[in-house]
What we know:
By secondary structure, the protein is α+β, with helices and mostly antiparallel strands. Helix content is about 25%, strand content about 35%. It has three helices and four strands, in the order βααββαβ. It has helices at about 20-25, 25-35, 60-70; strands at about 5-10, 40-45, 50-55, 85-95. Strands 2-3-1-4 form a four-stranded antiparallel beta sheet. The longest helix has 12 residues, at about 60-70.
Amino acid sequence: MAEILEVISLRPAPGLTPEDFVAANADINHYLKRCPGFRWRRIVVRDDGTILDIVAYDSLEHARSGAAGITGEMGDSPVHDAIDHRSVDWQFTTVLQHVEP
C-alpha cells in the first residue's frame, strides 16, 4: 500500500517558539485522528528553528482531503496564528522505501 507524506516546512510566527507551534496544534491532532487514511504525524525542529511538520496518509486522495480540512473545517484553529505564512513550503511526497527494525 502506498504511503503519502504531507511535508510542510515553516517558521513560527514572530515572537513564538517551535514549542508554541506544537501547543497550538492540539485541535489539529484531534482532527487528523478522525481523517480517513491518516497514519501518523511528526513535528520536528531543525537547528535554525525551522519546523518540519510531516503527516502520513495511505493515499494521495486522503492526504489532499486531510490537508483541505486544515484550512477548511479547521480554519479557526489557533495553529494558523502560530505560523509565519511567508515561510511555508508545502508539498505531498510519495514514500519510495520504508525500513523498520
